[in-house]
Every structure is written in structure tokens, then in C-alpha cells.
Amino acid sequence: MTTSIPSLNPTRRNFLKATAMGSGGLIISIALPSCASLKNDGMSQAGNIEQWNSNAWLRIDSDNSIHFVLDRVEMGQGTYTGMTSLLCEELEVDPEKINVSFAGVDSVYRNTIYGIQITGGSTSIASSWQIVREAGAATRMMLIKAAANTWGIGEQDCIAENGVVINKATGNKNNGHQIAFGQLAAIAATYSVPSDIPLKDKADFKIIGKYNKRLDAIKKATGTADYGIDTDLPGMKYAVFTRAPRWDSQIKHFDASKIENMPGIEQVFAVHKPSAIGVAIVAKSYWQARKAQQVLHVEWHESELTQVDDASIFAQYKKDLANDSGKNVRSEGDINDALENAEQTISAEYEMPFLAHSTLEPQNCVAWAKKDSLEIWAPTQSPDMAQVAAAKATDYSLSDIKVNTTFLGGGFGRRINQDFVAEAAAISEISKQPIKLIWSREEDTQRDWYRPSSYHKLSASINKAGEISGWNHQMAGSGVFDYFVGDAAPAQYPFLPKFMFGMLESAGKMGEGIIAPADGSIFEGADAIPYDFANINVDYKKSDSGILVGNWRSVGYSHNGFIVETFIEKLAQLPLMKAQKDSYQFRYDLLNKHPRAQAVLKLAADKANWGSPLPGCTQGISIHKSFGTWVAEVADVIVENNQIKVKRVVCAVDCGQVVNPDTVVAQMEGGIIFALTAALYGEINIKEGIPQQSNFHDYQLLRMNEAPIINVHIVDSDENPTGVGEPGVPPLASAVANAITAKTGQYFNKLPLKLDA
Q1: What tens digit of pLDDT does each residue of 571-584 get?
Q2: Could you tell me the residue ranges of all domains in the chain?
Q3: CATH topology agreement for domains 1-225 and 228-303+363-438
């Protein structure tokens, strides 16, 4: 899920609230502007912590324990450490002393960019940079005030350090003149939150910008981190779910006679919900359920997708774009005049494939339907959308459903779609017992919400002076918003009754921008091309393939980064251009309006020794901006026995101020490996409406021996932080392709990259 990243509103500090706990502690809660009705009195009335339900980020108990409720999910991208570091920098506490838990569903935890409780679009740090630091700083100020009043001295004579407030006037912090935060919490909770909350200068940071170790590393290394698939409840049973090969098919008939008496099988039944259509098998163990599924016979009604395949999908895209260029998303100058009066016109067409997510942890969910409530344990990227999905698949209302978020074994956008939650909820309600639903790898691959395929036409005009005078980019493909708006729209309005969910979904699909931002998932990265051309035109035609699609790591940037940068390379390789400038200098000069981009490009080129590739290799270069972050990459590539081998990737990144450099490096490395897998192997083929790949034998991942050396260099910046989870992906495929072009002269207009015979 992606969008532009607006600057954060400093007035949000007015929504910090202080609450005294009956046990003598302090809660600092954060109410977003859309949720300003958050009350202060939850703990003071209840008198004990158990009755306070997820309306705060920070809690300090009288036993001096500090609890941080993480309102973003941890799926390997480092929010667990990064967000805690923001808090602790201003609170003056060692991050390792913080107890971190995942937030349940509450409007107070909504992503300030998207308006729902979602982790996506590389927005966690960017959206929290100011408000989480202010929460820590405000708490520190209130604790200092409490200590000063206790000692009868001025606040200027107190300092907070490592979880205590120290009396500076005594001149010795080891002589008892210090008070732990927990001892001050009850007093501090009686104060109003300061209206003016100064934050530290970058020069004073002790945690932010340092190479801090990951706070979740020990849990993951020792197997104590609880992923969704690890959830275990008393009396829990296991479920598998048989779905149609074509996702729009309905059940015609099923025969369970051969499996009802198999060992461990307890129930076999059909589920007929819009978001959960199939046959469920509930057993005492997962393997018993899976073995029974192999014997189950299901007949399906005819599907509308039987005539859909790769050829028909791209034929549809081309036809739709030829009939109507669709929505104009950028228009500068007069592209028609530039093309008509061109001395030379260069054109190319591109076809981008469907791509699967292949998260390490397959989709899974635990659901426990009780008489008056439903509880969910799920590795989801959007707890409130999971709550909606469960409500739509059952007879429970939103207020009856509790969602427990776990660690995620990879997300990449797949876990924004909540089908696995809907299925588990429906199965548990019918089964009337707690169940764990686990998808097989084959199910995960063939019933994915794929990165959309798309078709692109590009043209560039060269004028008589030998300059690029115009750039025209037209594209067609599915948008991802239509495929999750059914859960996203109701999540924005949880106070509305269930019968209105369908109306909200329809409103979201009918009018982009009415209840959500316009869907830019196909054209993002194309509309914001940074090169300095006098005439630029970008058009997008929405053309639904009929195949399930969803967000995929870096979404539209993932294909536009490749398309834009390989077409730029085509222009750079024109004899006139090549005689004047190499691929690096060609780009650098065209980025004259973007000094940050030029700096990133130069850093990557310098660190890669541009022009002096590794032995036997050629080099390719690429740059792309996504999620507010500039990334340039240089790939050293060798072609041996008609096989592509990437030996090294040098990456330069400008993501504003860095919270944890090690996380930035890890995310660039991970994005490069993820993108290289797609560049060399990624492709989901459709035949008669059925995805053809099923597991890693035919949807291959990059192997360890194929991984290149990766060097990451971070630009020192004072700008606000921008995303890092996804920006490493878009430049990679084009950097590799451009290196091969430099060696062989072959241009690429499809992925995965395949050499001419």
C-alpha cells in the first residue's frame, strides 16, 4: 500500500493525554485528531491495569517497568527496534529495558497517512518520527517535574537518565539523590501534558542514528518470538481449506465419504461466504487434516475465468489502452507537438508479469468463536481490516471481535489482504471450537493476491539539437485498491453497522478519492519521473485482468523503476548521446533539478568505481525514488554460458535522518535480494484462469550461492526520515538489465530477464 508522504503535523502533540493508574503508574496515551474523543479516565475509574485496553503507546508501572505498545507490526523490517528507539531517545531509557507488545485494534493506532491501522508503504518511522518522540519527551518532562516538586527544587536542577531522575544539585547521582521513573509515575500522572515539547537536536542523539542491535533478535534466535503459526490454545484443532482452482468459482458438490472416518478427522463442511468459499476439514492435527484433503473430491461451478490466460490479459490491456488512454496523471508542456516535430522518435513496449509474495511463513490464522465473542490471532499487516474480514465472514459485530497481532514471517504486502482471517473466523464459528488454519505452500502460491501484471508504451522525442524534448508513458493494468477496499473502507468507519459494509466497498470502487486516496498503484514512480524534459505526459488506463491482485513490495514502483530506467538507458545508448556522455553522466545531468538524487547517484557510482567493473563484468546503473527515498544502484554482472550472474551490487540511499543504520543496510540488502529473485525468476503464468506455478520448484527463489556481494552506503541527512523497507527494490532489475545491455546490446522489455539465444 503506497502513497506520498506528507509532513507530520506538529499540533498532534495536543493529543497526548496523561492518565493515572490505580496501581500508581502513569499512562501516556495518544489520540489522533480523528479520534480526539479518547478519554483520560479509563485507568483511574477501573483501578487496575487489566481493564485498560490498548488506548496508549506508553505505560509506566509503579514497579518501574516500562511498556511500549507497538502500533505497527514487525515483519522483519525493524519497526520493533526502530519505533522503540524513537521513544527511548527522548524518554532517556535504554531500549533493552522496554517491554514491547503489539497493539490490538483501536482507532488511536491508525496510521496517520492511511487513516486505518496498517503497516505498509514503508511509513512506520516516517509517520511516527515526531509523535512518538514527543510522547517520550513529554513523559520525561512530567517525570522531571514530579521529582523537582518532591525535592522542592527547580526542574532545571533535575535530569533524566537511564530510567531515573537525578538531583543535579547534590552533584552525585550515586548518593541516593535519584528517583526511579516508577516511583514518580503516580505523581506525574496528575499533571497536564506540556503544550510545548522541545525535542533533541540531532547532535544530542544517543540512540537515534547509532548501530543498535535489534531488540527482537534474541527472541527470534531462541525461538521464543510468537509468530501466528506458533499460536497454541487449549483444545485447539487444526483446519485446512479447499478452495477452487479459479478464485471466482462456487461449490457445486463435494464428497466427504472417504475421509469422515480417517484418523483424527472431526468435521468436514462447506463454507459459503463471499470472502471464504470452500470446504473445511477440521482435525486433531494439521497432518491428519492435510492427508484427508488429498482424498476429498469437490466439484465446482463454471468460472468466468476459463478463457483468461496471459495472452488474453495483455491483449485486453493493449486494446483498452488503444481505445482510451485513460486518466492523465501528469502533463507538462505539449507532448504531441514534441513528438510531431521530433527529429527522431524512440519507442518501446513493456509487459510486466504477475508476481507472488512467497512469504516464509505461509498464511495462517487462529480463531476462537465463543458464544458472545470471537478472538483472532493473526500475522496480519492490518489488525482493523482483519477485524472487518472476520465480521463479514461471521455473525459477530466488530465490537465482539478481538484481534491479537503476532510477529509476521514476512509480509511484502500480502498480509494486507485478509482472506486467511475470514476463512479461519468462518470455520471456527461453524465448528464451534478454537481452530488453527494453515495454508500449504501450494495454496499460498496459487491463491495469492499477485503483484499486478501491466502493459506500458513509451515514446521519447529527440529534437534537432540532439536533446530529449519529450517523454510519453502510457500504461494499462489492474489497480490493487479494488481488491482490499472491501475491508479497508469499513475499517475507517468502525461505528457503522455491518449492513453498510457493502455500500462502503462500492463507494470506494466507484469514486477514487471519495473515501480513500486515489489508487496510484500502477502509475506511481512513472508520474514522478525526475528527469528534466520540457514535455512530459503520463496516462493510466485501468483495465482489470480478473486475476486477484494486491500490494507487493514497492508496488507500482517495482515495475516503473525497471521500465523508466531501462528506457532511459535506451536513450543514453543512442549514438549521439553515447558519444557525449556515459550512462552515469547522462542521468546525472538530467537530474539537475534534484540535487539529492544527483548526490545519491554520484555516491553509488564512486563507491562502485564506475567505469572499472569487477573482472569479467560490465556495469549497469539505475536510480529511483520511492516512498520519499532516493536509491541508486550499480550492478556488476557477468554473462557465462548464456546465464546471468550478478557479482556485486553497490547501493547508495538517502532516506533522511536514520534511526538505525543497521536496519537501513539490512532493508537495502533484503530489497536487493527480493528484487533480484523477481528479476531473474519471478513470473506467475495464467492458463484458463488458473495460476500455473505452485511451489519453489517452479516459482524459484534466489539461492545463497547466487547472492551477490552487496555494499550499502547511506547519505548523512538532516531531513525527516522516509521509507526504507521497499525502496531498495525498484532500481535493481534495471541496473542488472542495463549492465547486460552494455555487454550484449540486448534490450529488455519483459521480466524475468531472459537472454536471446
Answers
A1: 999 998 888 899 99
A2: 1-225, 228-303+363-438, 312-354+452-480+519-744
A3: yes
